[in-house]
Structures are given as structure tokens and as C-alpha cells.
Amino acid sequence: MQMKTPGLYIHVPFCQSRCGYCDFYSITQTDLMPEYLVALQREMGWYRDKFESFDTVYLGGGTPSLLRPGRVGDLIDAIRKAFVILPGSEITCEVNPADLNREDLKDLHDLGINRLNIGVQSFSDGELLMLGRRHNRMQAVAAFEDACSAGFENIGLDLIYCLPGQSLSMWEENLRQALDLRPAHLSCYELELKDHTPLGQRLAHGEIVQPGEDTQREFFLRTSEILETAGFIHYEVSNFALGMNHASRHNQKYWDHTPYLGLGPSAHSFDGAGRWWNHASLEHYLGDLREGCAPVAGSEVLDREALYSEALLLGFRTRRGIDLNEIRRRFGRDLLSEHAQVLERFSREGLITIENDFLRPTRAGMSVADGLARL
Ligand code: SF4
Asked: Are strands 233-236 and 239-241 parallel, antiparallel or unpaired?
């Protein structure tokens, strides 16, 4: 079987300040950027034999736009020296709306970055303040418009819903403002507050209240309905594209078991049979690479059963759904005959459709995707 072309993820672990809900690894000590970039190049050296070429590159974080175009250019040069980036590759950079002006964005475009993901999160200044974001609504709109003028055609906006105190109509207003801009892609994530985050603490102490489970589902269904009516394809639980040519090619690799290499602190990698992940500590990461070691914190081998369970879970989260022939070929399992009764019930309840050897979640099915995968 021909190996699918892998994707490359680079975790840029710097943020100017920490948002109150954030669970990603990042630090505010930006003076470590030069050392981090040198370490990344060393880390690339570890994987030259294992991963030769990529057709997607994703600069995520953290806040990659804090590197400014100069350092992003150095990083892209280093990637191109270490690996083959195939012609026509999708190269994405996450951007904070407060960081870059039109000229900076034009510089990013000239570097070959052809997809931007702007971390808008909300178009309400009150909500942005509550989340601890360092930009406001006007900066978010300006960042999108500047990116368009800089030549970007493939621009995604990230939004978060189910915020404490947010009503459905407040969220709908966010969606309306996003649609006014007509981005090519929208990611709408439900806010999940972990206990160790500042907002998670406030939730635990009863100082803020999040919408309950039924309301969360209502937000989800309404989001899907509004965006699909506006012409977007709801291609994954949290992701919407204005045509599948604008769907994130990189993220789709995570959902269909295509290998990917993750570099930088806390980044995860997958080679088709197992996963490994780096230390979620820049200090530890730099130390290991200085001493000539790979900065890997842990790894796991995925046996056939684990890969099968994951394939179901990931499949139920995507509009493409589960390719029954592929499941038969990869795992020797016949889902339709093994789970005939449950699947019949899911279908009767309007949660899935079974057509042309594909088992697909409906909108209602996507809202309970994790439950469907438990079969
Ligand atoms: S900018 Fe992003 S990565 Fe940084 S703290 Fe905020 S949510 Fe987390």
C-alpha cells in the first residue's frame, strides 16, 4: 500500500500573555526564541531519515505570529533545508489579530505561507476581555482585511462558543459577524475549561457558570445549521469550509491516520503504528537537544485494536464518515454485520446514514460523535 504523504507540525511555544482558558503549552519568556529556533533545527536533524517529504506544514502554538516575519522566514528556510516540502503544499500559520500589520502579512505571504488561521475567538469585546485575549473586535476585523489585501485567499477564523454568560443569540451574533467577512474556513470550538486554568478555577469556585449539556448541544446544532445555510460544509465536528478545497488538509491527516511529525515542545507525532510526544517544557526540550538527545517525553505503540477504535472515533467525527471497505481492508472487520442492531437504531434515530459503503454521521450524529463510536 502506498504511504500517504505526512504533514509537519511545528509548535511555537511563546505567547505574550496567557489566556484564562488556555490548556496548550506556552510561556511568555520570548527572549528564548533564538535558542528555540536553533534547537528546532537540531530536532529536524533527528527525523531526516524517517520523514523525507511533507505536503502540509502547520505553524501552531502558542503564538507563531510573535516570531514576526523575519524569524518565520528563518524557520521556513530551516524546514526546506531539512526536508522536501512538495510543490503545492499547504503551509499554514496561526496568527494573533494583535500582532501583524498589512506589510507583515504580505511578508508572510511572500515566504510561501498560503493559509492563515486567525485566532479571533469572539467578535465581542466583553467576551474577549473575559477570555483574557489581548486583542479586540476591531483588531480582529482589521487582521482579516489586511490578510486579504496581503494576498491571502485561504483564511480561517477560530471562534469559541459556550462561554460563561453567553446566550445563544450572543453566539449567533458572533457567527453573523464572522460570515460578514466571508472567510474560507471557520473553526468553532466549544469552550472546555480544565480545572488548572484560571477560568477553570473560577468555574470550580462557582464564580462563573457555563451553559449545561443540553444548551451546549443546542449551540452545536444551531452553529451547524447557520453555517451550512451560509454555504459552508460541516466537514468535521468543529470545522467548516467554504468548499472542500478550503478544508484544512493538514488537520485531515490527524483524522484519517496519515502520519505526521510534530516538532517543538509538547508536539505529538504519529508514524502509522505509534505515537510519541515531546516534553511540554521548553527548558527540558532545549536541555535534551543541547545534550544531543531527542526531546521525547513518552511514546505508545498502537496495536490493531487501538487503531480500529480510533478509526471509528475519528470517522464518526467527520462528514466523510467511515469507509466500510477501508475498515474491512485495514482491520478485517465487517462493521455492518458485527453491529447490525446498533447501527439500525442509530439510523432510525437519525444519527447516521449508511450509503454506498460509507457510514456517515448526520448533524445530530456529529453532536454525539464520541458516543456513536462506542457502538
Ligand atoms: S494565545 Fe493561544 S496558546 Fe497563547 S495563551 Fe492564548 S489560547 Fe493559549
From this structure: antiparallel
The domain limits of the chain are: 7-255, 304-372
121 close to ligand 1 (CB < 6 Angstrom): no
Q: Which of 14, 206, 167, 207 is nearest to 94 (CA)?
A: 14
27 lines ligand 1 (CB under 6 A): no
Rounded CA separation 369/351 (Å): 9
The topology under which CATH files domain 304-372 is: Arc Repressor Mutant, subunit A (1.10.10)
Equal fold, 7-255 vs 304-372: no
Q: What is the DSSP letter of 256?
A: T
Q: Ligand 1 in contact with 266 (CB < 6 A)?
A: no
Checking if the pLDDT of 1 tops 70, the result is no
Query: What confidence tens digit (pLDDT) does each residue in 82-123 have?
Result: 999 999 999 999 999 999 999 999 999 999 999 999 999 999
Q: How far is the CA of 114 from the centre of ligand 1 (A)?
A: 22
Contact 177 CB / ligand 1 (< 6 Å): no
CATH class in words for 7-255? alpha beta
User: Over 80: is that where the pLDDT of 29 sits?
Assistant: yes
Protein residue closest via CA to atom 5 of ligand 1: 18
Alpha-carbon distances of 168 from 25, 187, 215, 266, 375, rounded to whole Å:
30, 17, 8, 34, 31
Q: What is the pLDDT of residues 228-264, one digit of tens each?
A: 999 999 999 999 999 999 999 999 999 999 999 999 9
pLDDT digits (tens, 9 = 90+) for 41-90: 999 999 999 999 999 999 999 999 999 999 999 999 999 999 999 999 99
Atom of ligand 1 at shortest range from CA of 96: 1
Residue 171: CB atoms within 10 A of its CB come to 25
Question: pTM of whole model > 0.90?
Answer: yes
